[in-house]
Design brief:
2 helices, four-stranded antiparallel sheet, mainly beta
Length: 238
């Protein structure tokens, strides 16, 4: 009952617009393009690697079973628990499809740059969880099919393959949406009995994650932050 009252109050507020990025206390980042704007919000991203589904060196692609997690602050959705029966969490429909009216709240504008499909196409839909302080957590299971520039093939079959992929904003630059790592930016599934390398030829050996910033000739004053993942894989039998 209290969650229904809270959702009605927040989604019906005159200052709430699901298209406009929320304003929050941002960690202003210094980079070669200067400072990010103090408007907008920062989004933390983390990937939980569940399993390597396939590696196709001939087609230079890799398919991973993952859980993609994002966290950010939307102070418009915060509330006082005492005013809503002690409620500390609420749930909202989240849908990234452009033109869709299913999403009730603002969602990050993030895409894998060198993937065969966008997050909309490869991740399952899921509710976003809001906490009373305005923190939002959004986790979705699905797959990432990455176009790789493999290194390590020269040592086949004793190779340690490396593949990189980038996640960044498509329409929103760093002025409206900053990027940070959620924790270390990644973790491996270990609690689930179906996770891991059983019945696989290749498994993930290690992951390196870094924050990068790009600029483009069209808009040199706009920084475009990305998270760069470097995946190193090994043969399971090695």
């Amino acid at each position: 009952v209290w969650m229904s009252k809270l959702r009605a109050a927040k989604l019906g507020a005159s200052n709430f617009d699901a298209i406009v990025p929320p304003t929050s206390n941002r960690a202003l980042t210094t980079n070669s393009a200067g400072h990010y704007s103090s408007s907008g919000t920062d989004v933390k991203v983390g990937i939980r690697f569940f399993k390597v589904e396939s590696v196709n060196t001939a087609q230079a692609s890799m398919r991973l079973k993952v859980w993609v997690r994002m966290s950010w602050k939307d102070e418009r959705l915060g509330w006082s628990p005492a005013s809503f029966g002690g409620l500390t969490k609420a749930y909202y429909r989240a849908d990234q499809s452009i033109g869709s009216e299913a999403s009730e709240i603002w969602l990050p504008d993030l895409q894998p740059y060198n993937a065969l499909g966008s997050f909309v196409q490869t991740l399952e839909p899921s509710f976003a969880t809001a906490s009373s302080d305005g923190s939002i957590f959004w986790s979705r299971p699905g797959s990432l099919e990455i176009l790789c520039k493999f290194s390590g093939l020269v040592a086949f079959p004793f190779d340690n393959l490396k593949c990189q992929f980038e996640i960044g904003g498509w329409a929103l630059s760093g002025g409206q949406q900053g990027l940070q790592m959620l924790g270390s930016g990644y973790e491996f599934s270990s609690q689930e009995v179906t996770a891991g390398a059983s019945y696989q030829e290749i498994s993930i050996d290690k992951v390196n994650v870094s924050l990068e910033t790009y600029t483009y000739p069209c808009c040199p004053s706009e920084p475009w932050p990305v998270i760069l993942y470097t995946i190193t894989m090994k043969r399971v039998w090695m």
